[in-house]
Design a protein that fits this description.
With 255 residues, the chain is of the alpha/beta class. Helices cover 33% and strands 15% of the residues. It has 9 helices and 8 strands. The strands form 2 sheets. A 4-stranded parallel β-sheet has the order 2-1-3-4. A 4-stranded parallel β-sheet has the order 6-5-7-8. Helix 7 packs parallel to helix 8. It is globular and about 60 Å long.
């Protein structure tokens, strides 16, 4: 088995092997997704066309929105079992397609063999390091009450003094996602997300960057950034960062 980008297979002078039971290849990023029902727009972590590289999904059958929001401990074994299946299929890193998967970051990371990045919230420490001392990280999440200090601690954030949080739980179109109704109006949701972000920044003018907790929010990152003029981080910034670390490519150019 070769780890790293293979520029041209004929240039690899080595025996190439695969793990027994691996039936597919070429997907470095494995993504655990909940068993929910609504449209996954381009930009959503659960939409494969979001990425410029192949990803491999594992649906955690029978998992629910209320379970992830309440950090139901039953999910830990499901996450680990799903992660092991992704490992068997050759992924080099595992992502969770919901920020609240971060409740299980430490335990899952300890039990799986490849790097594990279950939540977009794992980006907070590096985001805050780039801001001015008087600036804050503004987190827009799915349900504010479920973004607990314990969850943030699992993601490496124990000092909450420079963190402000708002939730999208009251947006009429976002409720269709929370309630898994199978539909929503994408245009209206974008407008509602922009309105939420503008009010959030108006109420907290010391916000230096925005982080979307939710894997359903990246489709609206451009519109939000255009409206508030701030850096916007989300699951796609995390996943692209991880992918570029586990699949390094040789540089091409001239001197």
């Amino acid at each position: 088995m070769v780890y790293g980008f293979m520029p041209r297979p004929e240039h690899v002078n080595a025996q190439i092997s695969m793990l027994k039971g691996q039936a597919v290849a070429g997907s470095a990023i494995g993504i655990l997704v909940l068993d929910l029902w609504y449209p996954y727009m381009p930009g959503n972590v659960a939409n494969a066309s979001t990425f410029s590289f192949p990803v491999l999904y594992k649906i955690l059958k029978g998992s629910t929105g209320p379970q992830i929001l309440s950090a139901d401990p039953v999910l830990l074994d499901m996450i680990v079992e799903g992660g092991r299946e992704l490992e068997r299929q050759g992924v080099r890193a595992i992502i969770g397609a919901c920020g609240y998967f971060g409740n299980f970051q430490k335990e899952a990371g300890a039990r799986l063999d490849v790097p594990v990045y279950l939540s977009s919230l794992l980006q907070i420490p590096i985001i805050r390091r780039g801001l001015k001392p008087n600036q804050k990280v503004g987190i827009i999440c799915a349900v504010a009450d479920s973004l607990t200090p314990r969850l943030l601690s699992q993601c490496g954030v124990d000092d909450l003094s420079d963190i402000v949080i708002t939730g999208a739980q009251d947006l009429s179109e976002f409720k269709n996602i929370i309630q898994s109704t199978g539909h929503f109006n994408n245009y209206k949701l974008e407008q509602q997300m922009v309105g939420l972000a503008k009010q959030f920044v108006s109420d907290n003018p010391d916000i230096g960057a925005i982080l979307f907790e939710c894997s359903d929010m990246p489709p609206y990152a451009w519109a939000v950034q255009n409206a508030v003029g701030l850096p916007v981080f989300d699951f796609t910034t995390l996943i692209n960062w991880v992918y570029n670390a586990v699949v390094r490519r040789p540089f091409a150019g001239f001197v």
